[in-house]
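Annex B.
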Amino acid sequence: MIRLLTIKEILQYIEDNLDIYNIDIDSLVTRSGYSRRNLQLLFKRFVGMPVGKYIRLRRVSRSAVLLRLTNLPLSVISTTLCYDSQQTFTREFKKHTGYTPKQYRENKVWVFHNISGPLTVNPEFESPDFYYFDCEMKKIFADLYVYKGMIPYTINCATKRWDRIEKLLSHSLPFLIISNEVYQGQKRSEDFIIESKVWKEKTRDNNSFLTLKKSLYAGFKFTGTKQQYIHFINHIYMNVLGFYGLNRLNGGDIEIIEKHNQKEGEYFFEYYMPVVSDSFLVSRDKLPSLGDIVKISSFLK
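Helix-turn-helix domain-containing protein: predicted structure tokens.
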């Protein structure tokens, strides 16, 4: 039990200090009280990789998120993640991902090969369900709301968005369907822009519309609080996609939010995102259609 708690504490310590100083095995040995050899054995047993590899992986992965979601210059990202130079950052990033930072930022596909979010002890990787959407292009009417997000993305920077969601659900709506697209924020800021389009029946008041991307979609379901859901989505993106060899295509996602147990502050969530995978071998004809999901199909008639 003490060993387990020690590894959990080390994982949290690494996460809290990635952008504070260049963490190394010696500092963790001093902190834990274990010998270098015993610490390495424990870490590999509970996390599945050596501690040094995990630290390098988390630094590269944190920088990957900053590259995709912000306009921060490469020099700022390399300094923020405690690389000794921009050249070292570029070399390390390409070694892990196969892309230079510039290539990774500009790619139309968000690649998750060798990317990892914060891991827990004995991590689990939820298996996605797959759907294909190949319907004739149809305009879906929506109301547009724009929010600012920050890295790391937590419930604290999603307050306005969730205030809006709870207000809409309080109007006797059984569920909401929302499509979200994320855009890079200001040049020297760790923020990004979220455009959320709430699906609606056509009315005079609609201020936006969307069309679904023809694509393979990965789907996930989750029941829990809004805080737990944000943690779940972060885990899906940073850990699960890479584990299953999936990469995120540009374009809107589909998020279905339904009241579940309001006394406990719980919701039922369905989340679908367009993905691509070179290793996915199932024929499209054998996959269920995204358009056949009842809540979605009512907007496609």
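The CA atoms of residues 142 and 199 lie 4 Å apart. The first strand starts at residue 109 and ends at 110. Further annotation is deferred to the next reporting cycle.
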